[in-house]
Amino acid sequence: MIHQKRRKKLLSQLDEGALVIISTNPEQLRNGDVHYPFRPHSDFWYLTGFTEPQAVSVFSKDTYTIFLRDKDPAREIWDGKRLGVSDAPQVLKADEAYSIDELKTQLPKLIANATDLYYDFKPCTLDDEIITHLAKTQYQSLATYVHEMRLIKDDGEIELMQKAANISANAHQLAMQKTHIGLFEFEVASVFDAEFRKNNAEHAYTPIVAGGENACVLHYIENNKPLKKGELLLIDAGCEMQGYASDITRTFPISGQFSDAQKQIYQLVLDAQLRAIKSIKPGEVVSKPHQIASDVIRKGLIKLGLLKEGKELSEFYMHGTGHWLGLDVHDVGEYKQAGSHREFKIGMVTTVEPGIYIRKSDKINPVYWNIGIRIEDDVLVTKTGNRVLTQALVKEIDDIELLMREK
Ligand SMILES: [Mn+2]
User: Fold this and answer.
1) Are residue 197 and residue 326 in the same domain, yes or no?
2) 188 and 254 in contact (C-beta within 8 Å)?
3) Average model confidence (pLDDT) for the chain?
4) pLDDT per residue as tens digits for the range 80-99
5) Are residues 136 and 257 in the same domain?
6) Which of 185, 213, 353, 401 is flagged as catalytic?
7) Cα 70 to ligand 1 centroid, rounded to whole Å
8) Which residues neighbour ligand 1 (ion) by CB within 5 Å?
9) Residue 187: which domain range?
């Protein structure tokens, strides 16, 4: 069982008498007695494979104990089945299982023999009394160790991420084909809702479906405006498959044909993205893709007369070129080590997502107004360089126009 292996690997990096205490996310109320759909904490999920709320896992080299919700026939009629204490040891490969209600009495006993405690405070199932108890004991943070492990994906994780990437890429293609003047952004967004659910996946984050000037608002999620002639549509949407995220952005003309000005800016972003992706390989510094993408965009904008030599690029390109991807869409793992950028390693997955955003301004030729373009793919670092997990989805100008003509 992969989770057992991960716990073992984690413990092998800690002191001999180490005891790890890790809890999952709390449930969140939406309103009244209605909760948001529950999503386990990624670190907890990674180490236990357990997806129910109100659970705490405690383990050392010698023993693994899990605290979870009791079976409750009355509650289960309303909220669904629970694993329960008696089946937990076998299903979760634990030595002992207790009701979460027993945490208070059992935890001090488990802690008593440990020489080093590892725990991260976050809003969790551990109640104040336990926190108080822990506070009397010295403990260290666990997060860095788990996050370094999560940064390097194993074969099973890569397989899930490829599945997520395929579902998202297909949904983007369908959305491009469905798009036409007069639709509302939410009608295009509904393609992703349907495609993700159809594949037993869900949104990894709130999708951005931004027509025209809305694309210049980086985290636009209202998704409620009509699509207009002559404008571009930027879609940033990706699904989560058994916990693993994909993250894709495409930008395309609502009418199916780019204007000349749109083509110029689009090709510049695409060149920047392709060059940045090409730089990704084991041993290259992780800051390289951003450095390359920024250089390409800066030079291109100067050539088009949109940026003056020596001026800040951030007026048009104000975000980074990528982030780690995994159980979290902005995944864990440091970008720097001892103050300097670290190097890419086999098994890391990063997004590559340069963009150019041109707002209305007296200083800019109106043909460029309200052009907001971002192109984003998910890239796995491999032995020989990299593999683009989202390769299946078109992004060349001709390919996009052809796809939209043939719908
Ligand atoms: Mn992203």
Assistant:
1) yes
2) no
3) 95
4) 899 999 999 999 999 999 99
5) no
6) 353
7) 39
8) 247, 351
9) 152-405
